[in-house]
């Protein structure tokens, strides 16, 4: 989708907040631990190329979710290791070689399929995924891990890492986390050949479970300055949200009592009211369930009234404001703040989703 540059709706991304969040985490984990910045899904909506370019000197590598995201970074000149966290089908091995992308291999079946198709694994960089209880991808036993690694090595693959992923590192109850950790530790201890990089830590693990760090961390949400647990666990140190979402009033009017607003006429003014219109809607990722939530204008909370349309929303104003008055949808105004986490609570979802849903129609501006 083309970015809409000529309307006053934009996401401002503070790149130095991202680098300072990375340094905050790095200052609290052992120095020898490698840092991978997770920039999948366009860096959680912040812009993968801009983020990776800005932080590449601070980190040891990047994680993305698929081969195209890796190719995008290489084409933008990123040279550090790039690990693809998802499974790439063997058919794309040649592309991984061309772009020096590290593949996640998650099963013996994958290796067998590659060999059946006579695909050349020589020199391909590989991390092996272990399913310790997440149930998504990865080998599920020590025997399979050993068979897979020896098969990959025999085929000329360069097995550089082995990793797992925790399902509940962001929850107060840690019994499942401990089960997964014990499974992974025991598996790693039993390997015939242990790759150099052993990793299990997402943001939540790096924040709340030092024992799950091993030799590298994969930092996603924490570098964008948000709490991976939402509101469940307290952050052990301060991080700074990197993204603000802003728009502006493009239409302001005084309506008499009894005026319907928006599709379905779900809102009717109960008195004489000032109503403002903003140029963003669900096509920008400001979903329909934001009706009833607030925006910030001039340090005040103003409710979204009426349905959220595809391209416009309407808000109730405390007074008249001139066209072009700035509106904050995520961020601070005066002493008021709206976090992506607050938006997520209103929607019954997680802050990750709020960021990722901001569509390409919203331009990203960097400072
Ligand atoms: C997305 C992802 C991460 C990063 O998760 P955060 O919670 O954002 O830190 C780490 N590892 C894997 C396997 C992932 O899919």
Automatic annotation (TrEMBL):
EC number: 5.1.1.1
Similarity field: Belongs to the alanine racemase family.
GO cellular component: cytosol
Keywords from the named record: Isomerase, Pyridoxal phosphate
EC supergroup of this enzyme: isomerase
Pfam families: Ala_racemase_C, Ala_racemase_N
Modified residues (N6-(pyridoxal phosphate)lysine): 40
Catalysed reactions listed for this entry: L-alanine = D-alanine
Task of the protein: Catalyzes the interconversion of L-alanine and D-alanine. May also act on other amino acids.
Molecular function per GO: alanine racemase activity; pyridoxal phosphate binding
Active-site annotation: 40, 263
Cofactor(s) listed in the protein's UniProt record: pyridoxal 5'-phosphate
Keyword Isomerase on entry: yes
Name recorded for this polypeptide: Alanine racemase
SUPFAM superfamilies: Alanine racemase C-terminal domain-like (SSF50621), PLP-binding barrel (SSF51419)
Annotated residues for binding of substrate: 136, 310
Domain Alanine racemase C-terminal as annotated: residue spans: 242-367
Protein's pathway: Amino-acid biosynthesis; D-alanine biosynthesis; D-alanine from L-alanine: step 1/1
A single GO BP: D-alanine biosynthetic process
Keyword Isomerase appears in the UniProt entry: yes
């Amino acid at each position: 989708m083309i970015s809409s540059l000529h309307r006053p709706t934009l996401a401002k991304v503070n790149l130095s907040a991202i680098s300072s969040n990375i340094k905050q985490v790095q200052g609290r984990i052992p120095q020898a631990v490698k840092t991978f910045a997770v920039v999948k899904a366009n860096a959680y909506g912040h812009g993968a190329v801009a983020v990776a370019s800005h932080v590449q000197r601070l980190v040891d590598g990047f994680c993305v979710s698929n081969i195209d995201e890796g190719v995008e970074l290489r084409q933008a000149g990123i040279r550090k290791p790039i690990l693809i966290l998802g499974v790439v089908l063997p058919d794309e091995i040649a592309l991984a070689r061309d772009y020096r992308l590290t593949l996640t291999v998650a099963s013996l079946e994958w290796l067998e399929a590659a060999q059946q198709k006579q695909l050349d694994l020589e020199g391909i960089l590989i991390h092996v995924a272990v399913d310790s209880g997440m149930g998504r991808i990865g080998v599920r036993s020590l025997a399979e891990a050993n068979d897979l690694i020896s098969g990959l090595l025999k085929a000329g693959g360069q097995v550089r890492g082995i990793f797992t992923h925790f399902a509940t590192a962001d929850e107060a109850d840690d019994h499942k986390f401990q089960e997964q950790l014990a499974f992974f530790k025991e598996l790693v201890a039993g390997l015939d050949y242990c790759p150099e990089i052993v990793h299990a830590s997402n943001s939540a693990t790096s924040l709340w479970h030092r024992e799950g760090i091993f030799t590298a961390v994969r930092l996603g949400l924490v570098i964008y300055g948000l709490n991976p647990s939402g509101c469940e666990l307290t952050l052990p140190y301060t991080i700074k949200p990197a993204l603000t979402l802003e728009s502006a009033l493009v239409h302001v009017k005084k309506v008499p009592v009894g005026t319907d607003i928006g599709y379905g006429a779900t809102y009717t003014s109960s008195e004489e009211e000032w109503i403002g219109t903003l140029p963003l809607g669900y096509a920008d990722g400001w979903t329909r369930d934001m009706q009833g939530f607030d925006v910030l204008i001039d340090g005040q909370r103003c409710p979204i009234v009426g349905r959220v349309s595809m391209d416009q929303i309407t808000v109730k104003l405390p007074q008249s404001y001139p066209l072009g008055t700035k509106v904050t949808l995520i961020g601070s105004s005066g002493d008021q703040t709206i976090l992506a986490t607050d938006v997520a609570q209103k929607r019954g979802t997680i802050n990750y989703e709020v960021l990722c849903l901001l569509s390409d129609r919203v331009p990203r501006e960097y400072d």
